[in-house]
Design a protein that fits this description.
This protein has 257 residues and is mainly alpha-helical. It has 13 helices and three strands. Strands 1-3-2 form a three-stranded mixed β-sheet, with helices on one face.
């Protein structure tokens, strides 16, 4: 609550609690890959948050901060009350995880700055950067598949050996690629969503910290996120891979200090 209050969004959390929309799910092996889930109703603008095995720990609060990003995202979409547009966004957009990833970053920065569970928050930030690197590798592996394979979702039925034939000239550690495709339930588009979410949230964080959610870059992102992906937004603001690399390296240096 204090974190959301610091960014002027505590009313969203108050509504979730007041209306009994925060739930703890019993830990389930079939569901353990999900730390949390937000169910949003585009017709009413209401969200339900489910946290897997909720407890009063940094991990659960970190997950809750992520899901509150989805709540805020849904609220900003509800402005146009377009259910079909939301469903397209929710299932087919690479922008879906940008705001939740931004909330993760803002939350950890808040804890570190205010010396709240500081060591644990720093460890979590290290884990985040390591995971982000893994997402980048996975997203790159996805980019090696042809568009038709992706469009038809045929990558779900690929066997590890077939995947290796596609990517073997690009990767030295083929065992990790086999492992990536070994789970028949895997949704590889999530790798792309989280990768883009991490990259874009890193670009957005500084402006939001300085100017809040009225930051011009963030406001423009809110507008373009409901459209089909178009690199024009990235190009117009010169959000290059080199700039991301600089920010990533600067983040690692701060962590080392």
């Amino acid at each position: 609550h204090d974190f959301l209050q610091s960014i002027g969004l505590e009313r969203f959390f108050d509504e979730i609690i007041k209306n009994g929309k925060l739930f703890s799910m019993n830990k389930d092996r079939d569901f353990e890959q999900y730390r949390g889930l937000t169910l949003y109703n585009p017709r009413t603008g209401e969200s339900n948050i489910l946290i897997n095995g909720f407890e009063y720990s940094l991990d659960s609060m970190y997950t809750l901060a992520h899901e509150m990003g989805h709540v805020y995202d849904g609220f900003r979409i509800y402005d146009d009350k377009d259910s079909e547009r939301y469903l397209h966004y929710n299932y087919r957009s690479v922008y879906l995880e940008v705001i939740p990833r931004l909330f993760e970053r803002l939350f950890l920065d808040y804890l570190i700055k205010n010396n709240i569970c500081r060591d644990a928050a720093l460890d979590k930030l290290v884990d985040m950067e390591i995971n982000n690197h893994d997402y980048l590798v996975s997203a790159y592996a996805m980019s090696l598949f042809d568009d038709k394979l992706l469009k038809d979702d045929r990558y779900h039925s690929l066997k590890p050996a077939e995947v290796v034939n596609i990517v073997k000239e690009y990767f030295s550690d083929l065992e990790s690629i086999k492992e990536l495709f070994s789970n028949k339930y895997i949704r590889l588009d999530e790798e792309v969503n989280y990768t883009y979410g991490d990259i874009m949230s890193m670009f957005l964080k500084e402006g939001v910290q300085e100017e809040g959610f009225s930051n011009p870059l963030f406001k423009e992102f809110l507008r373009v996120r409901l459209e089909d992906f178009n690199p024009e937004f990235i190009e117009r603001h010169e959000l290059s891979s080199e700039k991301y690399r600089e920010k990533y390296i600067r983040e690692i240096k701060v962590l080392r200090k």
